[in-house]
Write a structure and sequence with these properties.
With about 240 residues, the protein is α/β, with parallel strands linked by helices. It has helices at about 20-35, 60-65, 80-90, 95-110, 125-135, 140-150, 175-180, 185, 220-225; strands spanning about 10-15, 40-45, 75, 150-155, 160, 195-200, 210, 215, 225-230, 235-240.
């Protein structure tokens, strides 16, 4: 059976942005232009998480996601594993912060105006100092945004999530950790998950379309290609930013 969206609904699912404000602005313009040509009256834009880290403007991406909502659109913002790391770091988890710094967190700090004296420093004192500086610089509105992010979104025959789902577990019983972090167990599974899973988190050169999942993380922060999956009824299309 071909999965479909709810009646009279078009859904725009945006993959991992990772601080690339320039690409986000382009894909949002493409979404707005595409919507003008479509008859559906209900329009949803679903962001799959990982707004921060790795790219140059994490703060700008958060501002843009929060502020951009054309007339007639609904906005659904999901949590990515990098937002999970950021929040845990702000809550005082030094080891989590140390891990995050090794995987793009330094770029998020810089995007919020934190001075990076030594990119290699990982001692407790240095990491704790980064955490205090970040906490002082992240606007309350951004912190509220991060804490309000949803783990998943269901619409019609589709289930949207950042990382994936654990095979064999009903969708309503999935753990937040699996939804944010799972990779191989999910990616290698041929199981029917009860819905078509739309996810980011795992980079591929082009969107990955399988019988049980669609992956749309095309590594925008390094490739310049940000992908948006467009779903309407039983149809499926893609919008992408051109690579540099």
């Amino acid at each position: 059976m071909t999965p479909q969206t709810p009646a009279d609904t078009v859904i725009y699912a945006v993959g991992d942005i990772h601080g690339r404000l320039d690409l986000l602005e382009r894909i949002q313009q493409s979404i707005a232009d595409d919507a003008k040509r479509r008859p559906e009256s209900r329009r949803q834009v679903v962001y799959l998480g990982d707004y921060v880290s790795r790219g140059p403007d994490s703060a700008g991406v958060v501002d843009r996601v929060r502020g951009w909502l054309p007339d007639g659109f609904e906005r659904i913002t999901l949590k990515g594993n990098h937002e999970d790391l950021l929040l845990r770091f702000l809550d005082g988890e030094i080891n989590t912060g140390r891990h995050w710094l090794d995987y793009g967190g330094l770029d998020a700090l810089a995007g919020y105006g934190v001075a990076i004296a030594d990119r290699e420093a990982r001692d407790d004192a240095s990491v704790a100092a980064y955490g205090r500086d970040l906490a002082a610089r992240v606007p309350a509105s951004h912190l509220d945004f991060f804490r309000s992010l949803r783990i998943s979104h269901a619409a019609g025959d589709y289930f949207f999530v950042h990382g994936g789902v654990r095979p064999g577990v009903p969708l309503e019983k999935q753990s937040a950790r699996d939804c944010l972090w799972i990779r191989k167990t999910f990616l290698n599974s041929d199981a029917d998950h009860g819905a078509m899973i739309v996810h980011g988190h795992s980079i591929s050169d082009q969107p990955e379309i399988r019988h049980n999942r669609i992956g749309i993380d095309t590594g925008a922060y390094r490739s310049g290609v940000l992908t948006c999956l467009v779903l309407a009824g039983t149809t499926r299309d893609f919008l992408q930013t051109p690579s540099p």
